[in-house]
Design brief:
By secondary structure, the protein is an alpha+beta fold. It contains ten helices and nine strands.
Length: 332
């Protein structure tokens, strides 16, 4: 792995390279029960499961993840040296919410190199969160990163940050890997954009489908409001004529015609908000980093609906101005 990373990082278009057992937005990440030295769980089954990563020193640079406290993985963190681990902010919030995790020691059940309190690793740094799970499967979880040089799995993913088009670098990466071992080959090569699209494809389809249905519903509502307002204006022709005969100006006539529509629109919007709140749990799984109770979303949708209804009723309301008071009253 050392030689593979060295060869890959010699490629001019490569900024940084690392390895891991999984890539962001996948379901292949290894996991293990976590044990914190000095904080025993009452039962073995109480140990929480966390995501495990065996990575290279340039891992966080490769993924563009900031080191927010302490340090990252160093080139000196190798076999025979003190075992170290870097955690993400989600792990801090879950296990050390009110204390500094730097210096704490942890070990993992089932990890050959970190599988007992005697072979525990010291937390040396905290990094930002990475979305390793698909966006609809609790994407941010506690992550624990240890150097692959201290212990690694045989199955590896090569992660590369490039300058320019990442697909253009693939042939050179393949040649670099074969220079180290001609029997090795690249497979399942994807850009992060491809992984993101694949991870979100189901939700994107559902969103487009619901958006299309919502647009059709809005058009039907606008058409219905237009028809109702037209009927309202026609049925109140005598009242409008009397108002005009008594001196009502254009603004007053239009305002009176729109008032009833506005009342219906606000009542409908209120009912819609209550209905949306009732089914918010259904759409929660389709949202990422957004609350189903976001006030800005509710306010924006309500305002859009009311404005659309007022716009639909404006033309019929303006038609009321063409009422001839003398003709209407003469017919009466």
């Amino acid at each position: 792995l050392d030689r593979v990373l060295e060869e890959v990082e010699r490629i001019p278009a490569v900024e940084a390279a690392s390895v891991d057992g999984c890539a962001p937005l996948t379901v292949q990440c290894a996991s293990a029960p976590l044990y914190i030295v000095g904080r025993p769980w009452e039962k073995t089954t109480d140990a929480p499961t966390v995501l495990r990563h065996y990575v290279a020193p340039a891992h966080f640079k490769t993924l563009g993840v900031p080191v927010v406290r302490g340090r990252g993985i160093a080139a000196s963190d190798r076999a025979g040296q003190p075992r170290v681990v870097v955690i993400n902010e989600a792990a801090v919030q879950k296990f050390w919410p009110n204390e500094n995790p730097i210096g704490q020691r942890v070990w993992f059940d089932g990890a050959l190199a970190f599988g007992s309190p005697d072979s525990s690793a010291e937390i040396v740094g905290v990094v930002g969160n990475v979305t390793y799970r698909p966006l609809d499967e609790n994407p941010i979880q506690p992550d624990f990163f240890t150097p692959y040089a201290q212990f690694t799995y045989p199955t590896r993913m090569l992660l590369i940050r490039t300058r320019g088009d990442p697909l253009a670098v693939i042939p050179e990466v393949g040649r670099a890997v074969r220079r180290v071992d001609p029997t090795l080959a690249l497979f399942d090569v994807k850009t992060m954009e491809d992984r993101a699209r694949t991870s979100w494809s189901k939700q994107r389809f559902q969103t487009v489908l619901l958006g299309t249905i919502a647009a059709i519903a809005l058009l039907l509502a606008v058409a219905g409001v237009y028809a109702v307002t037209s009927y309202f204006v026609a049925s109140r022709a005598r009242e409008i004529a009397v108002r005009m005969a008594l001196g009502a100006n254009d603004t007053q006539i239009v305002r009176a015609s729109l008032a009833q529509t506005a009342q219906l629109g606000l009542a409908g919007a209120g009912g819609g908000v209550l209905g949306a709140l009732a089914v918010s749990g259904v759409i929660r799984a389709m949202l990422y980093d957004t609350s189903p109770f976001d006030p800005a979303v509710f306010a924006g949708v309500t305002a859009t609906l009311v404005m659309a209804l007022l716009a639909a009723s404006y033309l019929p309301a303006r038609r009321a101005l063409r009422v001839d008071p003398a003709k209407v009253l003469r017919n009466e």
